[in-house]
Amino acid sequence: MLYYLELEVEKGCENMTELELQKIYQRAGNFFLKDINFSMEKGSVTALIGRSGAGKSTLIRLIAQAEIPEVGKILYEGREMYEDEKNIRSRLSVVYDKPNFNMELKAGRLAEKIKKIEPDFSMDMFQKYMEIAQLDRSIKIKQYSTGMQKKYMLILALCRQPELLLMDEPTSAVDPVSREEMLQMIRDYRSWQNVTILFSTHNYEDIEAIADHVMLLRKGELIYHQSKDEVAKEFADKEQILKELGE
Amino acid sequence: MKSFFSISGNVESSPLHLGTSLLVATASMLYINATVGAMGGIPLWVGMMVVFYVIRGIVIAGNRMTHHLAFCSKQEVRRMMAAYGIAFFAIWAVMKILLTLAQMLGWGSVSGMTAKECFDSIYGSTLVERWAYVFAAILVISFVMSLFPLIVIRKKELWTAYLIIDGIAFWGISRLVIRICDIWIRKTDRQKIHSVMDALFMCVTPYKWQAGLFLGGAVILLLMITGMVYMIATHCYGPKPGNTIRIPEYFQTENPKEREKIQKEKRKTLILVIVAAVVLVLAVAAFVLFLIAGRMQEEPSYHKVAECLTEDRSFGPVVYNDQVYIPVHCSLDYHENEEPKGYFAYKGENVDSRFYQLSIANMLYTGENGEFPDYLEMYGADMNSYERADKVEKDTEWKNDSIFVLWDEEWLDETAYSRDRTGYSICEKGIVEMLENEFGEVAYRPEDFDDYDAYFTISGYQDPKEAFGDEVNCGEWVGCILVKDNHFYYGNYDNAITGVTLQELLKVLGGNEMQQETQS
User: Where do the coiled-coil regions begin and end (chain A) (predicted)?
Assistant: First the structure.
């Protein structure tokens, strides 16, 4: 009986870990991502910081499986992508630094097309977030400004109702009002969905607004991964964090 | 397919990707020309170039559908394969149609053709020719599908290896097809074969089941290749188990100099791979050019130099150098010592198709090199002899004949479809004499045969067996009758047949309406 209880506890603990990276190595030209190991608890929000070229985007692309790591394992709720790809993909949304879908389509049309293939895509949420973001669904995506495209990408990602959300600098090149709208959408989504979020940023306000953990990458190596409070203790002042952020 | 193109994002537009697409498209075109023959050309190049550039561009840009959808890689590969196959086929077909239109409009080497003529000139006018094109088209699509994994393979070494192995495998398949065709090809004809198309043309299939068997085999091959390619592509494209044990050497050193050294080694390997790929394509190109050059030397190119003026392939006149020649019953042997002057075509026959040139070509031989030789010999699939019309007209051998036959232009076809001999009328010697006395020696002009409504040959025989025996015998040439706008002419449009001669002639022809009209 005790044995079964232990198993249940162990299984429960396993399920608490949404994402785990083991010994990740990746090379792109002269850039190296080296021995990355970390895990993220379910429902946690982690900000990935580091100067340009530190490896933030590469790390997010690896987790999204847009690139395959040369060495290492990436576990999603304890399973690798090849073990249950369809299910993992259905729970994972990615917001890249630039759009990677057909921008010739009208915003509403693309959402409808996605809905046709993916029934879980929520058109109600799409409608609601488009209104919050003040985006016109009847114009082509390529006619949106960079900031509007970022908001649109976030909306598409959220409407898939993900349990794991990866975002590569979601608020860069976005005006303060739009940034607040985006953060509001994320907070709103978190209020009813226990989503795990990993996002890269150069913006301290983003960390303050939504993150509860911070991960620092420097020259392809993971320097630390701690809670936001511990980071505040470690760095004497905000200036030091901004320096790491590259601001 | 629709969802793949409508959702997927932008295409990678690096010069390297453009170069790779050019390499694949050009190599495919040359390769198909060398192995299948006749089906590799601009449409194939354009199809491969567009499809490969766009779809691989989407893949290497990392714009996967799976980033937006609850898809697995297998589902994505299926959509990608459908997009690849259908888009290639559509572009290929559109390009073929555009080229046909270009030819019809006179942009190509063949101008002013109707759509049917143009289609026939490319794909042959008989089913025997067309089935070979259908077979070859399925083979080409199989080859194009077999290249699909090149869309998803990202490692350069693996990519090059796949290209080489696929090329060798497909070469093996094309050789196998030629081997199978050999069963039905005469030994003496085997040396003419350079590609699958040549073998198919030479392999004359008298039975539908043989053509059906070939086509069925091609479809099975296509399905097998598609299935195999799908398995390879899903393996390459899909996620794989992670590795936490084998850590490459370049990750294990902190020393920048050592890293640089490792990088240099890697760069060297990459350059070698690229050079090998370029050398391979150049080698294929050189091989194909060598084959084509060899073929050109082996097979001198001929043009049509003589043609039948009527549909009557046995008794009708022919034209050579604007001079009319008449069939004569004698055997010539110019072909044993002379070089052919060119193709000797039946009326409207397409001599440009490879099928004609390999299987059914008739060549023209003359015994003398003058512009208007006395005799012509047709030698090839058929054998006939001809004499210059002005010489024949001077000849009065027919006066010794007792039986005269008025041959309908299509008597041969009519006879073929009937148990009874049809397509001819026996006429009295008196009518022949009336015509000859009235018009004498007739000067035949090729242009008079361009737009007649009906045509008849009058031949003379001494013995009924000569005329109606099993062997086709053209007898002694007397003359011919042209009908145009309900008027009858003897040999040319200056010689209108009228009066009693016409009435007698119409009786022979069994004419009724025309007779009444003439009387009125």
Answer: none
CATH topology (fold) of A2-245: Rossmann fold (3.40.50)
Range of the domain at B227: 2-238
Q: Are B417 and B379 in a shared domain?
A: no
Tell me: do B112 and B166 sit in the same domain. Answer: yes
Pick the last residue of a domain from B391, B422, B437: B391
Amino acid at B82: A
- Asked if residue B273 is part of any domain, the answer here is no
Q: What is the dihedral of CA A204, A209, A210, A215, to 10 degrees?
A: 20
Residues B99-116 have pLDDT tens digits of 777 766 666 545 556 667
Domain-terminating residue out of B341, B367, B391: B391
Whether B72 contacts chain A with CB within 8 A:
yes
CA distance, residue B173 to nearest chain A CA (Å): 34
Q: Is residue B284, in this structure, part of any structural domain at all?
A: no
Among B3, B68, B236, the strongest candidate for a mutation testing the A interface, having the largest count of A CBs within 10 A, is: B68
Indicate whether B321 and B404 sit together in one domain: no
Task: Give the per-residue pLDDT at A8.
Answer: 42
As for how many domains chain B has, the answer is 3
On whether both B375 and B440 belong to a single domain, the answer is no
Amino acid at B256: P
Q: Is the CB of A27 less than 8 angstroms away from the CB of B250? A: yes
- Flag whether pLDDT at A105 surpasses 50: yes
Mean of per-residue pLDDT scores for chain A? 84
- The bridge status of strand B375-380 relative to strand B362-366 is antiparallel
Q: Which residues of B touch A80 (CB under 8 A)?
A: 239, 241-242
Q: pLDDT by residue (tens digit) across B285-335?
A: 777 777 766 666 666 678 888 999 888 888 889 999 888 998 888 888 888
> Are B31 and B138 contained in the same domain?
yes
* Cβ contact, residue pair B62, A61, below 8 Å: yes
Size of interface A-B (CB pairs under 8 A): 108
Classified as helix, coil or strand, A227 is strand
How many C-beta atoms surround the C-beta of residue B457 within 10 A?
26
At residue A4, does pLDDT exceed 60?
Answer: no
Query: Is B294 inside any structural domain?
Result: no
Q: What is the pLDDT of residue B125?
A: 62
B387 and B400 share one domain: no
Task: Name the closest residue on chain A to residue B9, using Cα atoms.
Answer: A101
Q: What are the CB-based long-range contacts (under 8 Å, 24+) for A172-181?
A: A172/A97, A172/A201, A172/A202, A172/A203, A173/A146, A173/A147, A174/A146, A174/A147, A174/A150, A175/A147, A178/A133, A178/A147, A178/A148, A178/A150, A178/A151, A179/A203, A179/A205, A179/A206, A181/A132, A181/A133, A181/A134, A181/A151
Q: What is the DSSP string of B262-320?
A: HHHHHHHHHHHHHHHHHHHHHHHHHHHHHHHHHHHHHS----EEEEESSS-TTTS-EEE
Say yes or no: B83 and B182 in one domain.
Answer: yes
Structure confidence at residue B318 (pLDDT): 92
**Would you say residue B513 has pLDDT above 80?**
no
Structural domain contains residue B184: yes
Q: Which residues of A touch B247 (CB under 8 A)?
A: 23, 25, 71
Q: Does A115 touch chain B (CB under 8 A)?
A: no
B382 and B428 part of one domain: no
Taking alpha carbons only, the member of B479, B346, B295, B489 closest to residue B405 is: B479
CA distances from residue A152 to A134, A145, A241, B71, B206 in whole angstroms, order as listed: 10, 10, 29, 21, 65
pLDDT score for B82: 92
Query: What is the residue extent of each domain of chain A?
Result: 2-245
CA nearest B26: which of B1, B52, B54, B7?
Answer: B52
Q: In this model, does residue B128 exceed pLDDT 90?
A: no
| Residue B117 reports pLDDT greater than 80 | no
pLDDT at position B187 over 80: no
What's the pLDDT score for residue B68?
65
